[in-house]
Design a protein that fits this description.
Two copies of one chain form a homodimer.
Chain A: E1 2-7, E2 11-17, E3 23-30, H1 34-46, E4 52-57, E5 72-73, E6 84-85, H2 86-94, E7 98-102, H3 103-114, E8 123-128, E9 132-138, E10 141-142, H4 175-179, H5 181-188, H6 199-220, E11 225-228, H7 237-249, H8 258-261, E12 262-263, H9 271-286
Parallel strand pairs in A: 1-4, 4-7, 8-11, 11-12
Antiparallel strand pairs in A: 1-2, 2-3, 5-6, 8-9, 9-10
Helix pairs in contact in A: 3-9, 6-7
């Protein structure tokens, strides 16, 4: 039996299941401070005979196995989680192999194995929610270099009618600063779910996301792009993305029809937890 | 003995050598039309008993081995080269394994094996010259997805004092449209080599290249970045790149000191041809 933790900024999803992505049991635990959240996570897994645990975590995290702080959550502003030895804590408790990657890399893995990019050795998974992040499978491997990608913070050009200053504490008007959920709320004065009928909201959202997709396509050339996260529940964003991306690329690169190339997650909100199960499996194989 | 072709837009460099990057003989052939250029290439290699030939080519090219047009130069505006079956022509003539990738991916491979990124499984090689292109080694493999990257055409934000409209026929003011050699020449009215003392020229160049590097760093997280090509012979650009990139990233990601992270090619102008020799070796191993 495999264990999986999708560690998000507001909640942890814990599950046990198998490598086919079948989930036998799951539980949600609020993300407060490690001293509260982690004991509940441990309690959950103590009920099951898990052979390995996979963690898809919010970041930034240290994924460099040669580093003394491998497996840590690193410079997060989230109280209590900065420099938290996540992998070591789980490993010491259960004495099983532990897989560790970003939540979005886990989701990319899940969608490539069992979802919208099934059978492909390359895909990009982007989440647009409280923040913006992306993970990628490249030639069959989860993308990693010096560290994991931080694709949500790339630069975009301002929409000519956008007066909003941006919400990113590091870069102000980077992609996340202009297009994540909190930016939508602050710009328009109310939450996205209450803006469903305001065409200009989603046109502008697509304007920014299309720019990001242009950069990702030109730099990574993914075989499939999957857009998840709360903001992407607003399906009207897709039309704006398709229209703006088509204009931006101007036929410079040959892509499949955009409607089949840029899609929703097949696994829905289960992409991350499914990918985390697969991280557990990888850890088991490598152990 | 290995053969290598670095196929550029203005000249082909042909060489024979070994996997240590030693070059025994080389020749430059002007890039005119295939009917003139290719027979001279063939003539060169007929002098040597090559076991394999590696090609690092200008693009766009088809690197998808499952495609019926694998090994073709595809949608180039260069007269005569559109839909040219490059690999097949060389293979039919010499009946040896032929490796094929972009010129910049070849250069990335060369620098990672024998140059500035020696010993690393990850690097990014960017050329800034007549055009802008980049290749990358990711977890030990040359980056490829649906196709090869086209990183030179990413979007950048305009410098507030830049009135130049941009030179890219597809995207007007994308990175290549604003920062490649021809754009510098057209904006300032004379070639870059005659602008050495004009500080504002290289400050603006660094402003654009730093934005591109920010996107590449956040998306790919390369372990080393190598800047080649004619424009980068102007060493004063580096200071502007370091300064602007530091401001843009604002310590969001942890990087090594920029002076050691973003560097010139150790192989100088031989990065591409050396990488092409290594493509020949790969083809031989895979054959």
């Amino acid at each position: 039996m495999l264990g999986a933790i999708e560690a998000g900024g507001t909640k942890f999803v814990c599950a046990v299941g198998n490598e086919a992505g079948e989930i036998f049991a799951r539980e949600q635990i609020p993300t407060t401070i490690p001293q509260e959240t982690i004991p509940k996570v441990i309690e959950f897994f103590k009920q099951y005979p898990v052979n390995a645990i996979g963690i898809g975590s919010f970041g930034p995290i240290n994924v460099n196995r040669d580093s003394p702080t491998y497996g840590f959550i690193t410079s997060t502003p989230k109280p209590g989680w900065r420099d938290y030895p996540f992998v070591q804590t789980i490993k010491d408790t259960f004495e099983v192999p532990v897989g560790f990657n970003t939540d979005v890399n886990a989701a990319a893995l899940g969608e490539a194995a069992l979802g919208a990019a099934k059978g492909l050795d390359s895909c990009l998974y982007i989440t647009v929610g409280t923040g913006i992040g992306a993970g990628a499978l490249v030639q069959g491997q989860l993308l990693q270099g010096l560290s994991h990608p931080e694709m949500g913070h790339i630069l975009v050009r301002r929409h000519p009618e956008d007066q909003y200053q941006g919400k990113c504490p590091y870069h102000s008007d980077c992609l996340e600063g202009l297009a994540a959920g909190p930016a939508i709320e602050e710009r328009w004065g109310t939450k996205g779910v209450d803006l469903v009928d305001r065409k200009e909201v989603w046109e502008m959202e697509g304007y920014y996301l299309a720019q990001a997709l242009m950069q990702y396509v030109l730099i990574l050339s993914p075989k499939k792009i999957i857009l998840g996260g709360g903001v992407m529940h607003q399906k009207q964003v897709y039309d704006s993305i398709y229209k703006n991306l088509k204009e931006l690329l101007n036929d410079y690169v040959t892509l499949p029809g955009l409607e089949n190339y840029i899609v929703s997650p097949s696994l829905g909100d289960n992409a991350g937890i499914t990918g985390s199960l697969l991280l557990a499996r990888q850890a088991l194989i490598e152990a």
